[in-house]
Write a structure and sequence with these properties.
This protein has 321 residues and is mostly helical. Helix content is 69%, strand content 1%. The chain is elongated, with a radius of gyration of 28 Å.
Length: 321
Amino acid sequence: MSAARPPEGAQHRSSQSEGTPVSAATSLTPAVQTPLRMFLDEFLESRVAVVALSVLGLIVLLAIAAPLITPQNPYDLATLVLTDARRPPGFVGSKGFTHWLGTDAQGRDLLSAIIYGLRISLQVGLMAGAIAFTLGASLGTLAGFIGGRTEALIMRIIDLQLSFPAILLALVLAAMLGQGKWQLIAALVTAQYAYFARTAHGAATAERSKDYVEAALSTPLSAARVAFRHVLPNCLPPLIVVATVQVANSIALEATLSFLGLGLPVSEPSLGMLISNGFQYMLSGRYWISIYPGLALIVLIVVINLVGDQIRDQMNPRLKR
């Protein structure tokens, strides 16, 4: 008795499936989307954010390569020529190069001074933001995790500090500490760490009641290890959003203090000091001394805020457009 033969259609389909290459079948499998990949894809969908990030990257590259691309070192007083002071854009100086954006009241090449000023603004903003992030996130997480009197003491101090404007605290501290880069950074950190602490406290309080924290506390792990190795990483998304805003605020505060003469010394002109030096010549027609550094400062702050707004919208689904 002969065995039953499968239908011809089934036999045909079987031969087709057996003849399909493994690589072709594998290529039809959808690629795994990691959270980072999804974040980048969504970020690239915003043309404004991409342009802002590109401009910010260009500014960072210019600041890093400032000693290589600028025709003059504005910090080297020996290279300054007073007879070239307050010259209009396009003036060919006694050193033989063209001052494309003109010169300031000390004879500095304004293009070189602006690029170096951007370098200072980024250094001060990033360093102050990083230190304030570390200090504020640690205090806020500690207060939200421990609770009790420690939380009450830390948060009352934070609330008291937040009741004063950041610019007022920065002015008082800068006047007390004196001029200098590290004194300026210390003033900015003291004026801004409370924003990180308040954000971290709210996130840590929400994380403290979750099951994984109770499970971690039931092990021999110390409370500090649980707080900083388990709770703090889950508080990072809102802290990253605050960090982008506070870096821009640090740059604006540094420019304000330098404009008022409480920032960096005269030998290290920042954007705020360049604006201040040219402010008295505005009515005499020498607009370029203040206008060009002011435009550079505005562009830097705007692109950082645009990138920060996009990050905020992606990390908070309620704010997505």
